[in-house]
């Protein structure tokens, strides 16, 4: 016994017991009577058991459930051994086997008589079941949600689920909503208890205190919290018998594993969360976990869905509500309501960030240091320039700014830590990758697994893990999946702007930063293969264009980016520019083109082919949307740059020469354009041969400008000769061949055979519909040609009706203000007047002219044509009363008078311009070599 004592008295057993053990040794070794020894031994064993129980109870407050069970098992085993074993053996068993190694049971050396964590002086208990207050917080936009939750105790809600789950991303204000519900219900005499489930210690301590408040005896609590009984069963028995209305709020229940026995779902009915079986009670949970299956997996399997609970998403605030949160803090000192709304949008409507921003601006106004953001506009500018760090900073500091910045970022870091614990270590990398994209919806098609798997960052990723990662991120509100049916376009996801800022900052300081930029560029390029000029690809390009252009900025700002990725980023951004121009967003296309050009210069240099190609695009849009003569002059300057870089007979340089010829013709010099194409043709033949498609496209352009120069018969004959060659090269139903047939019909009509042209278009239209679809822009252009030649063949009313159909389709596909839509409307107005209604034609031109001026400018040739035609039909409307009896054929004959000022020139405006773009396909094809 003495040797055993020298090896170390058991931790948690008093020195008095150690002395008693020594005395007991003397009893047996010095010949004392056995009855006295046994009695003293039983007394000592009881004392040991009592003290160990106290240590177990205290340890249960802060220790794990597993340790508690081990302690309790040791006590039960010791109790059963008291009768069967001698006292010394019992004492030895308690000490050596009562607690396993590594727990507060046995220490190798002599230690204090209580566990180390209990040896320290404890202060007063700070745990409270009272709901937290909302002092200093402004809550807006939640009245409807709070009202619905406080209505749980009304008669009409008696069949509603009694478990309500508030879910949303960190900082969304779930706790504030729950606190507001608690505040209202307490005024209605509802007993409210608040338990935190942020970690197991807080959850277990809170539930222990709840059991005590509900009337559990010390013995019941002791048995439940030492593992002898079920603590959740005890709490729920007491809740079921509570006589008044009650609400249990479990806050921050992000990790559902803490709420249930190991491996069981929340629906098992054996954990801390259960549906109350009385209308007097309800449970309100706040959690980042928004995945329905995480809460209802057992019920989903049985087809019961959400029957045991109801989930409420706590989303972001509207700009108006977010602005009011800011104004609640600052009043009018930091700016107007409009400026506050702009800041609310930049902060993504996140209540946490809005409240912190409001407090920041109040503090900044009290201490207006130079450079500090003191207004809503300053705050937006700071965020745009440097993200969260520009306002709060990231350095370790005790300042309020540093604390706020860490609070915002740590809000989401906790979610990522939780996903890592759940077996999703790649969640952080995936969120970082997504954060490199623009603040726009991200199409799921962008996450191409084949491209992802080629990256070192995601080399081991498979489709199942990618889906699990996306579900996990969405479940905690780190991304938001837009799977509603409101938008018929591709499915998308979004990232909150502040999460994007924070994730991008952390990615920037990791070794994966450059790899992720290159990967994002490759993903966007792989998803952007569709022709941006093809209307069928516009839904995809609408989503991809913002990311393509944003990634070029990211690449230009990166400290290290490989040249191949920079070139891919530049080419993808240029294709996005073509999309903006194709859908008629001329202002966007030109503005973005300037930005893309500057970025290409920074990344690749001024003489790189991608930089020069952007200058090509800028010249094209200058001609299309502003001034053809200016486009001609820009191409004249570009040609020297291309020839200097690539040589005079390089295909790309020849393509620029062809563009120069086109814009020379469109600027009003068709004969000069024709002559330039005659000079280009032998150069192209030397570069490409005589049967290449690009050579045939040059022949198309030469034929077109020959007709425009005043020889429509020569143009018709040239297209007649080209048609069989095109058919041999491409096949009879290739779109390029169909375009040649349409141009043949066009110049046949202008050669004096409108009926033949009409019949050719009539045969051609069903082929276009079969090859490209009934609503493809090229098909609609053929219908427009058919309408024109129907009118010129003697039926202007039929032409008007055909154009009416085309306009409605074109507006739906391209929008009401697309340049081609405006040209189609001009043709409709023309044939409306020619059909005998000059007043309607006048009114249509009156409505059209301001749209044309806004789209192309007041000096554009199309704008000038519309202005002339408005004047013409205004005069005709004034004369209509006196000319009402004029024979219809006489009016129709007027349409064939070739006059620069007559509206007969107008329909040719659209159709010649449209098909000339196909005639000059050579330049576009050559430029595609660059891209």
Description:
The termini are far apart. Among the domains are: 2-119, no CATH class; 143-313, 3-Layer(aba) Sandwich (Rossmann fold), CATH 3.40.50.300; 745-923, Tetratricopeptide repeat domain (Serine Threonine Protein Phosphatase 5, Tetratricopeptide repeat), CATH 1.25.40. It has 42 helices and eight strands. It is elongated, with a radius of gyration of 40 Å. The strands form two sheets. A five-stranded parallel sheet has the order 2-3-4-1-5. A three-stranded antiparallel sheet has the order 6-8-7. With 931 residues, the chain is mostly helical. It comes from Rhizocola hellebori. It holds the Pfam family AAA_16. This is ATP/GTP-binding protein. Residues 141-214 form the Orc1-like AAA ATPase domain.
Strands, total number:
8
CATH architecture of the domain at 745-923: Alpha Horseshoe
**Spatial gap, N to C terminus:** 90 Å
Beta percentage is: under 5%
Mean pLDDT, nearest integer? Answer: 78
Label the overall shape. Answer: elongated
- The CATH topology of the domain at 745-923 turns out to be Serine Threonine Protein Phosphatase 5, Tetratricopeptide repeat
Low-confidence stretches: 1-15, 55-121, 300-305, 393-404, 888-931
Helix content: 55-70%
């Amino acid at each position: 016994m003495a040797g055993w004592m020298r090896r170390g008295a058991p931790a948690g057993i008093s020195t008095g017991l150690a002395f008693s053990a020594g005395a007991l040794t003397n009893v047996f070794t010095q010949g004392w009577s056995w009855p006295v020894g046994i009695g003293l031994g039983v007394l000592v064993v009881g004392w040991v058991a009592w003290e160990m129980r106290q240590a177990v109870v205290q340890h249960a407050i802060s220790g794990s459930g597993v340790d508690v069970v081990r302690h309790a098992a040791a006590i039960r085993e010791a109790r059963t051994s008291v009768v069967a074993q001698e006292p010394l053996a019992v004492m030895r068993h308690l000490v050596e086997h009562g607690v396993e190694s590594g727990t507060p049971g046995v220490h190798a050396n002599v230690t204090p008589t209580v566990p180390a964590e209990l040896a320290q002086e404890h202060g007063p208990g700070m745990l409270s079941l009272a709901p937290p207050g909302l002092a200093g917080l402004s809550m807006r936009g939640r009245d409807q949600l709070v009202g619905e939750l406080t209505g749980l105790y009304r008669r009409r809600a008696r069949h509603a689920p009694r478990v309500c789950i508030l879910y949303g991303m960190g900082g969304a204000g779930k706790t504030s909503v729950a606190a507001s519900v608690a505040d209202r219900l307490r005024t209605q005499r509802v007993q409210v208890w608040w338990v935190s489930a942020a970690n197991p210690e807080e959850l277990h301590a809170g539930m222990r205190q709840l059991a005590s408040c509900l009337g559990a005896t010390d013995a019941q609590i002791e048995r439940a919290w030492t593992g002898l009984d079920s603590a959740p069963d005890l709490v729920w028995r007491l809740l079921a018998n509570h006589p008044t209305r009650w609400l249990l709020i479990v806050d921050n229940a992000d990790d559902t594993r803490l709420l249930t026995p190991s491996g069981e779902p929340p629906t098992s009915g054996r954990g801390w969360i259960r549906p109350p079986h009385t209308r007097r009670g309800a449970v309100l949970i706040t959690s980042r976990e928004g995945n329905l299956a995480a809460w209802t997996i057992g019920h989903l399997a049985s087809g019961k869905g959400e029957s045991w609970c109801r989930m409420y998403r706590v989303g972001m605030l509207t700009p108006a509500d977010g602005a009011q949160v800011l104004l609640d803090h600052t009043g009018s000192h930091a700016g107007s309501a409009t400026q506050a709304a702009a800041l609310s949008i930049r902060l993504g409507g996140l209540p946490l960030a809005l409240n912190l921003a409001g407090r920041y601006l109040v503090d900044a106004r009290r201490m207006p240091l130079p450079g500090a953001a003191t207004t809503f506009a300053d705050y937006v500018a700071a965020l745009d320039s440097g993200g969260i760090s520009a306002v709060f900073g990231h350095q370790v500091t005790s300042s309020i700014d540093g604390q706020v910045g860490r609070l915002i970022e740590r809000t989401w870091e906790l979610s990522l830590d939780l996903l890592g614990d759940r077996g999703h270590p790649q969640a952080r990398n995936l969120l970082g990758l997504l954060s490199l994209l623009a603040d726009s919806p991200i199409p799921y098609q962008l996450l191409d697994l084949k491209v992802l798997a080629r990256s070192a960052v995601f080399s081991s990723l498979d489709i199942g893990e990618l889906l699990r990662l996306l579900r996990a991120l969405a479940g905690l509100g780190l991304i938001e999946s837009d799977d509603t049916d409101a938008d018929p376009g591709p499915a998308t996801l979004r990232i909150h702007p502040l999460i994007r800022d924070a994730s991008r900052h952390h990615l920037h300081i990791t070794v994966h930063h450059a790899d992720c930029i290159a990967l994002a560029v490759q993903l966007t390029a792989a998803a952007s293969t569709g022709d941006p000029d093809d209307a069928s690809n516009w839904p995809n390009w609408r989503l991809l264009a913002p990311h393509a252009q944003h990634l070029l900025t990211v690449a230009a700002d990166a400290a290290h980016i490989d040249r191949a990725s920079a070139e891919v980023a530049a080419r993808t951004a240029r294709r996005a520019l073509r999309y903006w121009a194709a859908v008629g967003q001329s202002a966007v296309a030109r503005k973005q083109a300037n930005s893309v050009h500057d970025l290409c210069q920074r990344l690749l240099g001024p003489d790189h082919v991608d930089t020069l190609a952007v200058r090509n695009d800028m010249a094209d849009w200058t001609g299309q949307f502003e001034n053809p003569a200016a486009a001609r002059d820009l191409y004249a300057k570009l040609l020297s740059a291309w020839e200097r870089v690539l040589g005079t007979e390089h295909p790309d340089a020849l393509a620029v020469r062809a563009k120069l010829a086109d814009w020379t013709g469109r600027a009003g010099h068709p004969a000069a354009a024709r002559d330039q194409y005659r000079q280009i043709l032998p150069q192209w033949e030397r570069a490409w041969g005589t049967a290449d498609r690009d050579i045939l496209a040059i022949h198309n352009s030469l034929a077109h400008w020959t007709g425009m120069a005043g020889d429509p018969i020569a143009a018709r004959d040239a297209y007649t000769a080209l048609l069989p060659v095109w058919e041999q090269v491409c096949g009879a139903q290739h779109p390029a061949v169909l375009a040649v047939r349409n141009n043949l019909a066009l110049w046949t009509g202008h050669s004096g055979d409108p009926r033949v042209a009409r019949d050719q278009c009539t045969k051609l239209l069903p082929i276009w519909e079969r090859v490209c679809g009934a609503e493809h822009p090229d098909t609609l252009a053929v219908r427009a040609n058919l309408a024109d030649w129907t009118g010129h063949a003697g039926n202007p009313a039929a032409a008007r009706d055909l154009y009416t159909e085309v306009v409605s389709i074109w507006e739906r596909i391209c929008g009401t203000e697309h340049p081609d839509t405006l040209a189609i409307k001009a043709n409709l107005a023309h044939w409306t007047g020619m059909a005998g209604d000059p007043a309607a034609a006048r009114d249509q031109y009156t409505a059209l002219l301001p749209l044309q001026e806004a789209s192309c400018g007041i000096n554009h040739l199309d704008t000038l044509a519309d202005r002339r035609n408005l004047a013409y039909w205004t005069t005709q409307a004034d004369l209509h009363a006196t000319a009402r009896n004029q024979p219809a054929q006489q009016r129709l004959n007027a349409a064939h008078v070739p006059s620069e000022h007559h509206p007969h020139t107008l329909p040719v405006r659209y159709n010649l311009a449209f098909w000339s773009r196909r005639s000059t396909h050579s330049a576009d094809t050559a430029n595609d070599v660059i891209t």
